[in-house]
Design a protein that fits this description.
The chain has about 280 residues and is of the alpha/beta class. It contains ten helices and twelve strands. Helix content is about 35%, strand content about 20%. The protein has an eight-stranded mixed β-sheet. It has a two-stranded antiparallel sheet with strand order 3-4. The radius of gyration is 18 Å and the shape is globular.
Length: about 280
């Protein structure tokens, strides 16, 4: 079984990412994010486990890729989740990339990435840090490092000369839309690009959110179950509401002279094809 796979092989019309490959060193994730979409298709997702014979199989996969290929690490789990402390699959993979032409985009919520900062400075890489909330992290993402840790990681990576972008993701109406503006103000000195995305509900993740925030049950059910629209296996907020949530962030980013993109929003005004994931920052 190959561990490095083409990203979005179905070529969804919602995806505006550049051509790239996807690699997840672990199956499942220990961050326990309530809004996670991957729990809907990966069995026992919250009981993460390392990939068997990881480096052996990955090395075989790599030699078959074209030179300068872009590898996204990771898309359905975090490469710096708690298991990385024990198995170091991510670190071993990055070490193997030294001296090669491959480009790597690292997407994480963890300041554990700072452990590998010297290694990252030697690679053709960019880092995307996902930040969802300043005050709700313990409920929304119980196993992930908190806001201050992630902000610290953004700052240190940037100061080390490593290209950093931030995913303000997902925006959940009634929960974190106000905090997103505060976060944007605080990350501006350290990033050149942000990616914004609204919460796309799936039955299991919506149930988890409602259980954690019962006071938001009526609002979430109304917006998603009554007024929402189904796209690509998920339930989207109505177009007008998504536009309303994203536009102020778009305008603020323009004032800060930041590159701006959205992820699978299908709103033409905010599309930035080929730049949505921040990989264009790789030198």
């Amino acid at each position: 079984m190959k561990y490095i796979q083409p990203f979005d092989p179905w070529k969804s019309s919602l995806c505006t990412c550049p051509p790239k490959y996807s690699l997840n060193p672990y199956t499942g994730c220990g961050h326990g994010c309530l809004y996670c979409y991957a729990t809907s298709f990966i069995k026992n997702f919250y009981s993460p486990r390392p990939k068997k014979d990881f480096l052996k199989i990955v090395i075989k996969d790599l030699v078959k890729l074209p030179k300068n290929s872009l590898i996204s690490l990771s898309n359905s789990s975090d490469p710096y989740q708690p298991l990385e402390n024990l198995y170091e699959h991510t670190k071993k993979f990055l070490n193997f990339l030294l001296g090669t032409s491959y480009r790597v985009l690292i997407i994480t919520k963890s300041d554990l990435i700072l452990r590998d900062i010297k290694l990252l400075t030697k690679l053709r890489c960019a880092v995307s840090i996902t930040i969802t909330s300043k005050t709700l992290s313990k409920k929304l993402e119980p196993g992930a490092p908190g806001y201050k840790n992630r902000l610290k990681a953004v700052k240190i990576l940037s100061e080390a000369g490593i290209p950093v972008s931030v995913r303000l993701d997902p925006i959940i109406p009634g929960l974190n839309e106000k905090e997103i503006f505060e976060i944007l103000d605080e990350i501006v000195p350290y990033v050149k690009h942000i990616t914004v995305s609204t919460y796309k509900a799936r039955p299991d993740s919506l149930k988890r959110l409602i259980n954690a925030f019962p006071e938001k049950k009526k609002l979430l059910e109304e917006l998603y179950l009554e007024k929402g629209k189904r796209l690509s296996g998920a339930i989207y907020l109505p177009d007008k509401l998504r536009y309303k949530l994203i536009k102020p962030l778009y305008e603020k980013a323009k004032k800060y002279n930041l590159s701006f993109a959205t992820c699978r929003e299908a709103l033409d005004k905010f599309k930035n094809p080929g730049k949505c994931d921040g990989s264009f920052l790789i030198i």
